[in-house]
Amino acid sequence: MQRKFPSLFSPLKVGGVTLKNRIISAPMTYPLLTSDGCLTPEAIAFYELRAKGGAAVVTVSEVIVDSGTGKYYDVQVVLDAPNAKDSLAQAARAIKRHGAIPSIELSHGGKYALTGGPALGPSDDYENGKMTARAMTAADIEKLLDAYGRAARLCKEAGFEMLLIHAGHGWLLQQFLSPAANHRTDGYGGSLPNRARLALEVIDRVRAAVGPGFPLELRISAQEYLDGGYSMADITEFAKLVDGRIDLLQVSTGAHHGSFDKTHPSMFMARGVNVHFAAEIKKHVKIPVAAIGALNEPGMMDDIIKSGDADVVEMARALLADPFLPRKAWAGRDDEIVRCCRCFTCMAERLATGLRICALNPVIGSEYELSFAAAPTTPKRVLVAGGGPGGMQAALTAAERGHRVVLCEKSGALGGALKSEQGIPFKADLYGFIAAKARQLEKAGVEVRLNTEVTPALAEELSPDALIVAVGAAPIVPPIPGIEGDNVIVAGDLYKNREKVGKRVAVLGGGLVGCETAVHLAREGRDVTVVEMLPDVCLDANGRHRPLLVAELNKSVACRTGLRGVRVTKDGLVCADGDGNEVTLEADTVVVAVGQRPLRPVADALRDCAPEVFEVGDCVKPAQVTQAVFRGHFAALDI
């Protein structure tokens, strides 16, 4: 058959192995490990799912070569633990049984390592007069090289068929490369060849441990985005130095102690934001080059390979949102792909709770336990009331488990609250969730009835064995004078009323919805002011997304906190502070974004309309898409 993306799915020889396609599952840490830093069955299942999904290579993430000096997170895989080899062997075997090549990333935190005292770095570092890192001695360097060699040998013996050496994102090898961190005057500092010396010695020691032909990948940051950091010319020269020593060069950007969106591009950045760096470096080396960063669109990735901008594409978050992206694209079913929306739920949840989850994929974080989920012995008739994200996910999961499913949506289109993301460029992938799920529902055989409200009478007529209530919520409209005026639009209805939005806009409500709406309107060239009664804005955004959203607001949006809206006039929004002092914000349009109220009367009317009734999504408690999709999936698993 003629493949839709032939370049993306062409083989490529890297060292002594052949990649079946050009897609690598990039390193992404799984936080639930054993107490001594070994992979658990849950972690192995996490990586195995990407192999099952069709990636050519699956890379186990940020494995520390020396636990005493190198860990930079509290929980990381370490290679000097007594049982490290056993768990690594199980992971390599799990990845290989699906036809993927198992790889593993070797790393060391350098001066950012959590050692309980001064860490090891290229130079002495002080903070508030206290030494936080000391310059590595010749003995320290030799010990480090031995650790890399032992780690590489162990990984090969455990069954890994490829290694990735981390020399980017601000960790030890990049610290030596960077004039911002490396102030040495010996053979490891000063000129670029000297600053590159440690990285070259690490590569050589690893090569000696694994032998010729064993594929080695090197991850670099093309730009540090730091004052005093290295230049593009520097990193290009470094690429020439490693050319021939390694077999694949991955071109990322940034450093962990800089802006987070440089190492992990946010939704406010364009897709493929780093590809031009890979393309530039590729001009100067003979080895294959990999691009990474905000890649989730098969057509774009096929063009990257076809054009010669890169030889390989790597994805991490995109393969959380849809681990089967490679297989779907290979089969020409790209309309079923759930694309990562770059919301940072996966990153923020790890910081908040120690879990790895995905806003759009409820399987992530439960891969191992779900492998034991038994199929229902008897298919049931399932009725789903509501076609928002929770209802769609519930219907899909129920159908995939063999149940006969009818999904009814009161309006004329699926999507629920996500319909409001229509036309917002930086939310395009989240809006695309609707179309992808609709296609999956069709393929799974779900009967979708639009313009159909589930009432007790309809439920009685259909007589389901189980009813999943996902009827959503309604926007809260504050009862203030003028709120019904023609110059007022509820945020969720903005996509239907774009022509009514004036040049000057006041957004009443500074939560996540209000702030993202404000950024969008400001990007369209409008003068936007956000009004929030709390002391700060977007406090309901996750811990990784919020700083980046605030940065976007600071570019072009005025935020007024500690104010509540008291009335709308033809001139704009009148607000009052805590003392009752009033101020008028001149605006042509007032956008209301003060939250949602669960449709409890609708949900309550359905609670006795089937033997089993489950409630999911905003009708229980207004939240974000993460909670709706998660609860919808697991409600269906309970049937």
UniProtKB/TrEMBL annotation:
Gene3D superfamilies for the chain: Aldolase class I, FAD/NAD(P)-binding domain, NAD(P)-binding Rossmann-like Domain
GO molecular function: FMN binding; iron-sulfur cluster binding; metal ion binding; oxidoreductase activity
Transmembrane regions: none
Cofactor: FMN; [4Fe-4S] cluster
FAD/NAD(P)-binding domain boundaries: 381-629
Database matches in Pfam families: Oxidored_FMN, Pyr_redox_2
Domain NADH:flavin oxidoreductase/NADH oxidase N-terminal: 7-336
Keywords: Flavoprotein, FMN, Iron, Iron-sulfur, Metal-binding, Oxidoreductase
Family: In the N-terminal section; belongs to the NADH:flavin oxidoreductase/NADH oxidase family.
Protein's UniProt name: 2,4-dienoyl-CoA reductase
Organism: Sporobacter termitidis DSM 10068
